[in-house]
Design a protein that fits this description.
The structure is a single chain. This protein is of the alpha+beta class. A hairpin with a 4-residue loop joins strand 8 and strand 9. It starts with 6 loop residues before the first helix and ends with a strand. 29% of the residues lie in helices and 17% in strands. The chain has one domain. The longest helix is centred in the N-terminal third of the chain and has 51 residues. It has a 4-stranded antiparallel sheet with strand order 2-7-8-9, with helices on one face. Strands 1-3-4 form a 3-stranded mixed sheet, with no helix packed on it.
Length: 241
């Protein structure tokens, strides 16, 4: 007996397999919309960032100002040591005060003494008006100021002694009572060095009683006034806040 399937059966099985086959899935995936900021949301974010920046700017400005003040105090301390060494090497004398009225040097009044640079107590520069090259960070292009009762040079020539105003209250250095001293042997203050402070053109910094009047001193961030270091008759150094 012939057990092989007939050709018709093969055909029916093949057709059945085709009919039950699953259709192939499409290879193309549907697009998904990507999230994005709207214009309103972007403007809101920019506005918030602007507000935060405006709040932080004053704090950053105060921090920068305070850092400069700390630098000034440190450099005035170094100048004070240089003056003390100069005095020790010159029988107790200190350098003369220089005042310029020539148009090109008029703004360089009471600069740091050239003698401190010539004798290597301070850095040297060839620039007129700042031969002793320690620049006041609040008065660019100018040195710190120096004054002392005693010899004064006007445009490089000797003239009468420089007169330094000293308050009558030597404890607080406050008040408007005081007098001018021109004799280094009787003055209660031997010398003074100072910076003009964060607002060098302010009335406090340019006061006629600056730098030794406490009313002209810089005291806190945002304030104006001078930053001061000085030595009393006994050589004890003191400074403003």
């Amino acid at each position: 007996m012939n057990d092989r399937p007939t050709r018709g059966r093969r055909t029916s099985r093949f057709a059945h397999s085709l009919g039950t086959a699953r259709p192939a899935r499409s290879a193309v995936k549907p697009r998904v919309a990507s999230p994005a900021f709207t214009l309103v949301e972007l403007l809101v974010v920019i506005g918030i960032l602007g507000i935060l920046a405006s709040l932080s700017f004053p704090a950053l400005a105060r921090a920068r100002e305070k850092a400069k003040v700390i630098k000034v105090h440190a450099e005035l301390y170094g100048i004070g040591l240089a003056l003390q060494m100069y005095s020790d090497d010159h029988a107790g004398r200190v350098p003369p005060v220089r005042v310029n009225c020539n148009s090109d040097l008029a703004t360089h009044w009471c600069p740091l003494p050239i003698e401190l640079a010539d004798q290597r107590y301070l850095p040297r520069s060839s620039q007129a008006g700042r031969e002793a090259n320690l620049e006041d960070p609040f008065a660019r292009g100018h040195t710190y100021k120096y004054a002392a009762p005693g010899p004064q040079l006007l445009n490089g020539d000797p003239v009468s002694n420089f007169e330094l105003w000293v308050p009558g209250n030597l404890t607080t250095f406050a008040g408007s009572e005081g007098e001018y001293h021109r004799d280094p042997l009787t003055s209660p203050v031997r010398w003074v060095v100072w910076g003009l402070g964060p607002r060098p053109d302010s009335p406090k910094s340019r006061s006629s009683r600056a730098p030794l009047s406490a009313d002209s001193w810089y005291r806190r961030a945002g304030d104006s006034g001078v930053i001061v270091r000085f030595a009393d008759r006994d050589g004890l150094q003191r400074k403003s806040p």
